Structure formats: C-alpha cells, structure tokens
Amino acid sequence: MMVKEFLAEKSSKFPRVIEFLNLSYLGMMVSYLQRNGDEFWQNYERVLKDISAVSALSTKEIYLALEKLQKTKNEITNERETSHAISFDSVCENLYEMEAYPISEHFYYAHAPHVLKRKAFVQNAIKMMDLNVCRCIDVGVGPGVILASALKEKENWHGYGIDISARCVAYAKKMMEIHELAERTQIERADARTLPYPDETFDLVIATEVLEHLPNALEGLKEVTRIL
C-alpha cells in the first residue's frame, strides 16, 4: 500500500494518532508504523483518548505539553553530565511536579515496547493469581495505567497507589474515575522509602520502574517487603 493511501486509511480509523504523529515525526516513522497491526494502532488511539479525558487537553495540546517536558528532561540530563550529579529532591521539584509529567508517563504506554512489555508482564502475573479477594498496591503508581489494568482483570480486588509526585496522584485518581474504578481505589502521595502502612498490609505489591530511581534502592525494597 502506498504511503498516502496507508495514512488515509489509518486517519479514518485512528484520527488522534495520525493528528499527533503529524505534529511530530510521522514522516520518519511510516515504515515502522506500516509493520504494526491494528492492535498497535487501537492501543495508541486508546491511550491518547484516555490522556485527553484525564487532562482535558486536545491532541495538539498533549503534544505541546510533552515537547515542553522533554526540554526539561534534556536540561536535567545536561546538568547531570556537567556536574556528574543531580539531587533526588531537585528531580522531584523540577520534573515530577510538572503538569505534563503524568501525561508523559501515560504516553509511554502508547508506543514504547519496553513499557508495553512491562505492562503485559504484570497483567499475565495477575491473571495467574488465584486470589478472589486481594488488597494490592502499586508503589509508584504514576498515571495509574497498571493499577487500572489490574483492577479491571480482578473485579473483587481493592487497589491502593502511592507516588511521590502530587501531579501523578491527582492524575491517577482521575484515571480511576474515568474507568469507573474509583470506589475500589485509594491513591495518595507518599515516598516509597517511608510507606504509610503497617507491616503486612497487602497481599500484592507492584513496583515497576521505581526502585532504580531512588537514592537508595534498598530502602525502598525493605519498605515493599515490610508491607507485603
């Protein structure tokens, strides 16, 4: 299929994806996109739809917010390369509390292979768990994608989530609302190194893409172990 025909077909089915890609790098990605089936496109469209529902931003506004956040990430990277260090508190203040940060974390689930594989890994593990009732927590809940996925799979489970980013907490709560999961969730701001729960509170702890970002990963691991 010719590129023009290919894009015309996809535009009628997945308008948000084509609009978003046209704002950025569609020309460079056509050959890659042509190798992906409808499942990829449907997921991409669904993620953009969810981001728009949670953030109340148009597709173009989502792109501009991500572009602004990427500039901040580049500045932090440059600072790290120049000074060979950057404090965890500085990252929390200058990156994690940006309005677009949870949007960025959510957007990875549209296209990033390693993020989609991580989500699939958690989904498969949860499907195999023979627990009718379960109290689970997502430590580093981010935009709430993985927690929402778990609760959709297990209708009797109750989910908790914590994140050091107040922006992510607010975003994840809204995510639960639009997916009609709010009654089964409790999400709050907390530090993975000092979790506000008694010992042995949870039947399942999910912690993905979290421990390696802590100044001392062992502190976070000890807390995860304590509450399990």
How are the strands ordered across the major sheet? 3-2-1-4
In helices, the fraction of residues equals: 55-70%
Mean pLDDT: 91
Oligomeric form of this entry?
single chain
Output the structural class. Answer: alpha/beta
Beta strand count: 4
Describe the structure concisely for a colleague.
The protein is α/β, with parallel strands linked by helices. It is 61% helix and 8% strand. β2 (158-163), α10 (166-178) and β3 form a beta-alpha-beta unit.
Describe the fold and architecture:
With 228 residues, the chain is of the alpha/beta class. The chain is 61% helix and 8% strand. The protein has 11 helices and 4 strands, in the order H-H-H-H-H-H-H-H-E-H-E-H-E-E-H. Strands 3-2-1-4 form a 4-stranded parallel sheet, covered by helices on one side. It is globular, with a radius of gyration of 19 Å. It starts with a helix and ends with a helix. The mean pLDDT is 91.
Summarize the helices and strands and which ones pair or pack.
Blueprint: H1 3-13, H2 15-22, H3 26-34, H4 38-55, H5 59-83, H6 88-96, H7 101-111, H8 113-128, E1 135-139, H9 145-153, E2 158-163, H10 166-178, E3 185-189, E4 204-206, H11 217-227
Parallel strand pairs: 1-2, 1-4, 2-3
Helix pairs in contact: 1-2, 2-5, 4-7, 4-10, 7-8, 8-9
